[in-house]
Task: structure prediction
Amino acid sequence: MPQTPPFAAMFDSSSYTRNLYQSKEDNRGGLYYHDNNLLSGSLEALIQHLVPNVDYYPDNRIRKIAPKILQLLTEWTETFPYDFRDERMMRNLKELAQRIASGDEMYWKNVQQLLQNLIQKLAAVSQYEEVLAKINATSTDRLTVLKTKPQSIQRDIITVCNDPYALAQQLTHIELERLNYIGPEEFVQAFVQKDPLDNDKSCYGDRKKTRNLEAYVEWFNRLSYLVATEICMPVKKKHRARVIEYFIDVARECFNIGNFNSLMAIISGMNMSPVSRLKKTWAKVKTAKFDILEHQMDPSSNFYNYRTALRGAAQRSLTAHSNREKIVIPFFSLLIKDIYFLNEGCANRLPNGHVNFEKFWELAKQVSEFMMWKQVECPKILQYLLTVPVFSDDALYLASYESESPENHIEKDRWKTLRSALLGRV
Result:
C-alpha cells in the first residue's frame, strides 16, 4: 500500500509537555485553572465537583435534575452516537430515559425524539457500512478484467470525466461522505486500548470498532492505486503522458478546493515506482505544475508548507459564504499521526498525580476541528472512482515494464517472472 513519509520528527511535543508541568496558581478545591479553563486536578476532586449533591439540587428529586440530564443525553447522543452501538450503553440509555420521562408528557416527547434521532443515525451508519462491504466484495484486479475484456473497449478516467475540475469535485464529495461517517469516538478507539487514567482497566467501549476510520484510510490507498493504474494502462506513450497531465490538473484543483487528502493520494500514486520509472513518458510531460504541488506537500520541516496552507484554508472556511469555500479536508494520515504523538508524547497525569486536562483539551481541539470541517455538502459521487478495478502491485509493475522495457537485469528478471505468473507467458 502507498506509504506516507517517515513521521518520527513530525510532532515535537517537548515544548508543549514542558508547559504542562509549570505550576498553576489558581487552585479551587484541588482543581487547577488558568484563565477559567480547567487544567488539572485529582480524579477525586473532579468527581466531587461533578456529582450532584444537596448544594446543587436541594430537594434531590429526579424531576429537579431531569432537564440537566436530558440536555446531557441529547448532546451525548448527537456528538457521540457510536457509543450507543454497544448494547450495554443503549440499554442503560433507555432505562435512564424511562426514569426521566415517567409522569411528565413534555419529557416523554423529548426522550422519544432523542431516541428516534439516535436510531436513525445508527441505521444510516449501518447502511453505509453495508455499501462499503458490497463495494469491497465486488472489487477485482484490473489485470483480470484485461484478460477477459479487450482493452480497446474499456473505459478510462478521461473518457468518463474529461474535466479535471469536475473530477476534483467528485473526489471531494467522496472524501466528505466518508469523513461524515467517522465518529469522534473512533479516534479514541484507534489509540486508547486501556483506560487512559488507569492502565490496568480496559475501556468500557472496548468492543467498539474503528471501521469507518479504517475505510477512509483504505480510500486514500485506493485512489493512489487508481491513479497509478490509469497512468500505466495506456499502450501509447502520448496517452500515458496525457493521463499524467490530467491528474496534475486534478491535483491542482483539489488544492484550490482545500481537499488535501485527495491531493496527497494523487501525488502518492504518481510517485509509485511503476509510474516514476516511465522516463520516456515523463519526458513528454510539462511538470512545472506538479513540482509546485509536490513542494506544497513536501514532508520536510514537519510538513511546514502543507500546515501553512491548511491554516489558510481553515481561516477561509471560518469566513466563507458558500459551501465550496468552507471545504477543508486535511491530509488524514498526518492528522492521525499528530493525534497519536500528542496522545503518546504527553502524560495523562502530572507529576503530582492530577489529571492532565491541558492534554485532553488539545486532543479535543484537534478532533473538534476535524468534526467541524467535515460538515459540508458536495455534488453526486462518480461511481467509476469507487468501483473500477485497479492494478495490484505486481500488475502495476508488469504494466509499467510492458509500457517501457526494463532497464537492467533485475528489472528484466522481474518482468519475466511477472509475465509467467500473471499472463502465463514466457
In short: The chain has a mean pLDDT of 81. The beta strands are 26-28, 31-34, 37-41, 194-195, 198-202, 355-356. The radius of gyration is 26 Å.
